[in-house]
Amino acid sequence: MERLTPLTLWALAFGCCIGWGSLIMPGASFLPTAGTAGTTLAILLGAAVMILIAYNYHFVMQRNSKAGGVVTFTKELFGWDHAFFCAGFLWLAYISVLWMNATAVALMGRNLFGDTLQIGFHYEFAGYDVYGGEVFATLFLLWIFGVLFARVNSLTKSLIRIAAVMLLVSVVACFLTAVSTSTEPITFYFNNRKPIWEQVLIIFAMMPWAFVGFETISQYTNEFKASVNRAFPIMVAAIISAAVVYVSMSLLATLRFPEQFHASATYLISLQELSGIKAVPTFYVISETFGTSGLMILGVVILSALTTSLIGCYRAVGNLTQVFAEEKLLPHCLASRRNATIFIFVVSIAIPFFGRTVLSWLADVSTIGATIAYGYASACAFVIARREGNRLAKFTGGAGVACASVFTFFLLIPNLWSINVLTQESYFILAVWGIVGFAYFNFLFKHDEKRFGTSPGIWITMFFLVFFASLMWMREKMYGELTIFIQEINAFYLSNSVAPRFAYTNMQIDNMREVLLQNTMILLMFTLVALSLLFRIQLRIKRKEVAALEEQRRRAEESSRAKTTFLSNMSHDIRTPMNAIIGYTTLAKRDDTTFAELKSFLDKIDVSGKHLLDLINDILEMSRIESGRMELEPGEVDLKKNLHDLQTMFQTQMEAKGVKFSVDGEKLRHRYVMCDKNRWNRVLLNLVGNAYKFTPSGQSVAVTLAELDDGQYELHVKDTGIGMSEEFAKKIFQAFERERTSTVSGIQGTGLGTAITKSIVDLMGGTIDVLTQKDKGTEFIVRVAFDIVDNPAIIDEPAPVDEAPAEDDFTGRRILLVDDIEVNREIVLMMLEQFGFVIDTAADGREAVDMAAKNSYDVILMDIQMPVMNGYEAAAAIKKSGNSVPIIAMTANAMPEDIKRTREAGMIEHIPKPIDLAKTLETIQAVLKNS
What we know:
Elements: H1 6-17, H2 20-61, H3 70-78, H4 80-113, E1 122-125, E2 128-131, H5 132-151, H6 153-181, H7 196-204, H8 207-210, H9 231-252, H10 264-269, H11 281-290, H12 294-326, H13 337-348, H14 357-388, H15 391-412, H16 424-447, H17 456-495, H18 503-588, H19 595-626, E3 635-638, H20 639-657, E4 660-664, E5 672-675, H21 677-693, E6 700-709, E7 712-719, H22 726-729, H23 740-744, H24 753-763, E8 767-773, E9 777-785, E10 787-788, E11 814-818, H25 822-833, E12 838-842, H26 845-854, E13 859-862, H27 871-880, E14 887-891, H28 896-904, E15 909-912, H29 917-930
Parallel strand pairs: 4-6, 11-12, 11-13, 13-14, 14-15
Antiparallel strand pairs: 1-2, 3-5, 5-10, 6-7, 7-9, 8-9
Helix pairs in contact: 1-6, 1-9, 1-12, 2-7, 2-9, 2-14, 2-15, 3-4, 3-14, 4-5, 4-12, 4-14, 5-12, 5-13, 6-9, 6-11, 6-12, 11-12, 12-13, 14-15, 14-16, 16-17, 16-18, 17-18, 18-19, 19-24, 20-21, 21-24, 26-27
């Protein structure tokens, strides 16, 4: 897949920010509302807020670089309900911007080319003339850019890069040329008709719409060519570029004006009375500045603006559609770029038939959608920053949420601070979209109760939004109807002075009553539908919670029963070696025990003790798995050597038992891989160990490891032993499960081996299956993928040490032994003094620190759990004092996280308890050689 370069990412973000609005809005909306000073100030403030929100996006992207942007962030942090809510409004925002830029062709065509496209059928919609030529031109534009997006990816990237650079350069060039040739200097002024703060606030409220698109970068992280850390500078560059274009076009619109006006301010206020190129100040100034070549330059600017915006928006909507399909929010067939494009085009077909009026309605809706997305991104940043203790990101996240809230309330609530922003049609669209969202979520929730239904509060918010939007629509609708009502009454009595005084008024009041009834019924319909859907969602959530509680109760009962059985088995299995240990210890104490008998008793005590240690290790390992603390530590592994070691380890045992044993690795094409060697060995040992235990003499055990495809491995461990019942085979991988026949058959074990094995395989991303038949045998099949190592390092693995190392003269070597348990100190003293070590002892960490400061030692053996000062603290204190004596942890804290913590405290090796003499000597010898 061809990756997106930083320039392409900038062009895509810049393209969504800039479109028809950069050419039309400065003269048509910004300047008449707030003048040059208010417009410039509002744009700069808006750019600053967008940069703050961009930082929030970047902060979250560094911790979650999956494709999907804010929807993915929201899903991970707040759950699927919030993600669905955010996804719906974000998709609506981008599809609205796409539709606005496509339908702008008709408006620009009328201003530049007159009635050229006004051919074919004709009708009027909401006071706007719609012509067939304009409709089909818009559809053609949507189709051609859809084909480019779906089919010609490399050409699309080149086009948007070229168009974005041309747009920025041409706008700046036009502005500088107009400034240098204009007889009118740039003057900064506010509109005198409203307070300054009100003027700035109205334009500032439009900034989420004006800059929508910079965040698209967060959706393409899976296509980044560079590091995700470069996303923030690219977003800032896109925001600044958009601000430059908006400010330049706003100031440019004031540099020239038609002769019938005495100032640009008068010209801008009178735009509604003009037509053609004069109705768009930016078009007029460029054409007047460049004369005959003005239209050509204007064409380049318009073409560049439309190309960047349509490609950018098509890609944004298409990518969102694909991500939603992959996440099963939309049908999975839309996960391909081609099908996503077809879907976008199909839902866009009706838009051109509504005419240009759709522009003002959708502009407000896209602003709301973008603001909701910004709020969620900032909330994600705030939550993560609070967890990490990052003060800067916590501040920017909180500030972003506050800004998004201000934008939302300012836009939604009409006449807030005496300012009216949204049109009545925008409220209607929001209400309809809310109903559609309710219905679609209800459909998804019905078919997927696991992911959805975790945040009932968000659906109460959605209901409030639907109710509020429909109520505001009715309010604005009635205000408009009342205005017309008063105007018609005044006009009637002015032209009919002799008419009865109240006859016409009463008739109009009756009409108004009918209109009020109709609008009230629409409001009631919206409310009832939303309430009905909310009730169904809440009911389903309640049923889900009840079902979850019932499932928890059932699992708790099953777990209790399983643990009871497990404890019964453990009682048996632990007492068996303990019985041997205590029994043979009692026999060894007899006065008439011979040396040969004593040695035999000690050997049996040793075997039983090791078996007891295996039982404890299995229980502890299962505990770590259930708590989610088991992690993989991948490294280079030679799979063939692994199999050879496995065969060496079990061959003698199998032969002694009379079991035929074979290991086959001939089908391995790549023997060197990256995996967690210890965990993989645990899988092999557990499966082969089980096969050995449950396979009687005269039968066979076969191990086969094959590579099915590059990096795809399949392990088979097959025996012809006693097998399992069909019922137990279904529960073989559950913890605390053992088959009754194995419990009473004298075969020792915890019943945790297969559960641990499955957990390891799952952690590796693989699968494990079992095929078994009673009295016929069992076969375990493990499928797992490993990364192939093409240039493996030489792996030197020392052979297992069963006896003390050859170089065993440690005479005069001084050791400080630190342990708070006297019997532990005594055992280690007796073990090590026979090899010539001079050993001092300390009973706690504080005593060890003092002795290390007074005396010189070759090595310190440090316990961890001690009174006064523990081993971690003591080791850190010794190292902090400047003492370079090597410290070895000798402790019963033997988990991987314990070993990691000893390293962090300054200890260079780790010896687990119970003490293995050979391993202890080997470790001390290696440390002394390296020190």
